[in-house]
Description:
By secondary structure, the chain is of the alpha/beta class. It has a single domain (about 10-225, about 280-325), classed as Rossmann fold (3-Layer(aba) Sandwich), CATH 3.40.50.720. The protein has helices at about 20-30, 45-55, 70-75, 95-110, 125, 135-150, 165-170, 195-210, 210-215, 230-240, 250-255, 265-280, 290-295, 305-310, and strands spanning about 10-15, 35-40, 55-60, 80-85, 115-120, 155-160, 160, 175, 180-185, 190-195, 220, 225, 245. Strand 8 (about 175) and strand 9 form a beta hairpin. Helix 3 crosses helix 4 and helix 4 runs parallel beside helix 6. The longest helix is centred in the last third of the chain and has 17 residues, at about 265-280. The protein binds NADP nicotinamide-adenine-dinucleotide phosphate. NADP nicotinamide-adenine-dinucleotide phosphate binds near residues 20 and 64. NADP nicotinamide-adenine-dinucleotide phosphate binds near residues 20, 63, 165, 319 and 326.
Amino acid sequence: MSQADTSKPLIAVVGASSKQGRxxxxxxxxxxxxxxxxxxxxxxxxxxxxxxxxxxxxxxAPLELGGQAELTEALKGSAGAFLMTPxxxxxxxxxxxxxxxxxxxxxxxxxxxxxxxxxxxxxVEAITRGTKWAPHFTDKAKIEDYIRGLPVRSSFxxxxxxxxxxxxxxxxxxxxxGITFAIYLPPDIPMPFCDPLTAAGPAxxxxxxxxxxxxxxxxxxxxxxxxxQQMVDTFVRVTGKRARYASAYSxxxxxxxxxxxxxxxxxxxxxxGMVEYAVEYGYYAPxxxxxxxxxxxxxxxxxxxxxxxxxxQGDLLSYGAVAEAELAxx
Length: 330
Ligand SMILES: NC(=O)c1ccc[n+]([C@@H]2O[C@H](COP(=O)([O-])OP(=O)(O)OC[C@H]3O[C@@H](n4cnc5c(N)ncnc54)[C@H](OP(=O)(O)O)[C@@H]3O)[C@@H](O)[C@H]2O)c1
């Protein structure tokens, strides 16, 4: 990969060490059609070093409020930018994710970026008429609205629930009679899931390959629709281990299985609001093209393929970029 070949468009990837960002940076580099500038807070993390080895230009840039001038500098010279916001637990009345998203977008415009791809989600507040509280969805939708008003071409990817949530946050518990998967969803309702580490990249690369085609579009990124019980049954089949589903859907069940969440009331409210929204209204708003990502990426991993590829056996895994204290399951 030749980063020196300036005839290739430069794409900046914000949050390049995140699961989504890493996937985007890798896909763009693997295509051979782009140069990539990877923005991270830390050059020494394993993902940042792996991207540098692959040929990315890795630069330090803040992914927090108040860093707009540095972000603008880091985005200069880029034809495109992939923008994402990290997991942030909202504590009202502060608006950290919304304000960070606006600052990222403003920085991209100030830097002269032509096309922004933002990782968004649905407006739960509008869809549920304010009855469900899932600010990490709604604030992304508000950032999207803001971006649409800026003088820059934009597209939006909406990633499904991550398979990796069970490896990082809602880790199954081992016991005498097998593994218990305490899942934040009822057993029998199919929900969209994806592997962010392999699904985000092909979707975003497709958009940068055809910017005019995707200007203004919202593009769901889905591996498959699968129910919680089917996920457990698939785990049993693939690993040969004994496992069972347990509900962590209601507030009471969530706290019974994950008592450490009780220390963060806003997180609990948000998780309950999110899953009630997803179950009662569907994760995606009506009319979204739920087949798009599989068409552009026929190799998108199903849960079964993800299990086989990752060889995951039900234990806690970390994706390496984030300090333990920063992990929040949003
Ligand atoms: N979990 C799901 O099911 C799901 C589904 C759809 C969308 N999402 C959304 O996806 C986003 C997270 O993406 P991801 O899972 O790819 O991210 P991730 O792997 O958790 O990484 C987040 C990155 O952001 C940077 N960062 C900056 N400030 C941070 C902070 N305060 N806490 C944690 N990380 C921080 C870190 O990179 P540096 O240290 O290198 O700067 C880190 O690598 C969230 O906005 C979430 O709402 C999640």
